[in-house]
Structure formats: structure tokens, C-alpha cells
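Dear colleague,

Following up on Tuesday's group meeting, I ran the structure prediction for the two-component complex that the binding team flagged. I've pasted the input sequences exactly as they went in, so you can double-check that nothing got truncated or mislabelled along the way. The C-alpha cells for the whole assembly follow below. Feel free to forward this to whoever is handling the docking comparison.

Inputs:
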Amino acid sequence: GQSLEQPSEVTAVEGAIVQINCTYQTSGFYGLSWYQQHDGGAPTFLSYNALDGLEETGRFSSFLSRSDSYGYLLLQELQMKDSASYFCAVRDGAGKSTFGDGTTLTVKP
Amino acid sequence: NAGVTQTPKFRVLKTGQSMTLLCAQDMNHEYMYWYRQDPGMGLRLIHYSVGEGTTAKGEVPDGYNVSRLKKQNFLLGLESAAPSQTSVYFCASITRDGYEQYFGPGTRLTVT
């Protein structure tokens, strides 16, 4: 089976940097993805790591260590609009997808 | 491109009633998924499909059935709705080798 763990809540101030961690267990690994979801909306894709290391996309970066079954999402120069829920997700070789329970990020002025 | 669309957007059912949720995608994606999301919770996989004519159970399949008769459509059925099925239902699709799931806008279902 597949399971993911991430913190339930994180709070930070505008302009700061925040890191959201994700540890996973999966039988067959096709990469770790990150999604953002604002209240009442659909999840939207942020980043993906198939190999170890850091992927940077603007203010957002994502890191993966396959040997540690661990990844994180790094959000820099936080803005109020970054207040949302963030989910890590994995997919196995058979196509089955599993999401973590999500981390609610609150950005304060 | 409309992307992923879901029909209906809202629905209220009485316990025991049945309904079908329709998901359609115009991106020629092989894989399609149905998730449910309860308030303050993550997305839980109900059923998924890796191609036309194929379906598989996810994490929480009980009380739901699915069909994928056409590649672009993935139907989720509730045969006898229960209050525990009150939730927001999201459909998503992805290419076989892709890493970005594209989500529909969701269907908000209330069972009274």
C-alpha cells in the first residue's frame, strides 16, 4: 500500500520562507508531486520530483530524497495568497494515486 | 480545451436515492481518477481507470461503482446514497507517463 505523512498546519509571516515536509511509503515509486488547494477550489499542480534533488519553479521549490522516502516543498517570499492547503502525492506503477492529508498554510501579515 | 469537466456541480440526495456523476476530459489522457474530499481532509481515492474499459478500486470504493466505456468519460455511480457519502467529489486525469493530474471543479454532494 501507499501512505504519506505531512504536518497538519504551518503558520508563517509574509515575506518569510516555509518548508512543508512529506514522508511516504509506497510499493513502486513514480515520483512525488505537490498540489495547492485554496478553500472551495480544485487542487492545482505545483511541482514534481522523480529523481533526488531540488526542483525550482519560481518562488516554489521541491526536494526529494528517495533513499529517505522524504521530500519537502519550499515556499519563498511568502505572500498572503499562498494561504492554502498543500498536498504531497505519489503514484505507483499500476497507476494508483495516493495523497497526503494536507498541510494548511496560514500566512500572516 | 475545456480540460476536465464534472457534471453536476451540486446535488442534494435523499438517503437511498441513486445518482451518477460524470467526468469528461478532452486531453486524451489514459488515466482517470475519482476522489472524495471531506471537510478539512485530504483526497481519498475511490476508483481509478488506466484505460478505456478498465477500472480498479482505490482506498474507499465501498458504496460506489464506476465505468469507463469511452476514453474521455469516467462515470461514478452511487446506487443507494447514504449520509456518509456527503462530500466533495473530484475527478482528475493524467497521461500514462505524466506527473501532473488535472482536476475538475468538483461536485458538492449532500445526502440527507
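DSSP finds no helices and eleven strands in chain B.

Cheers,
M.
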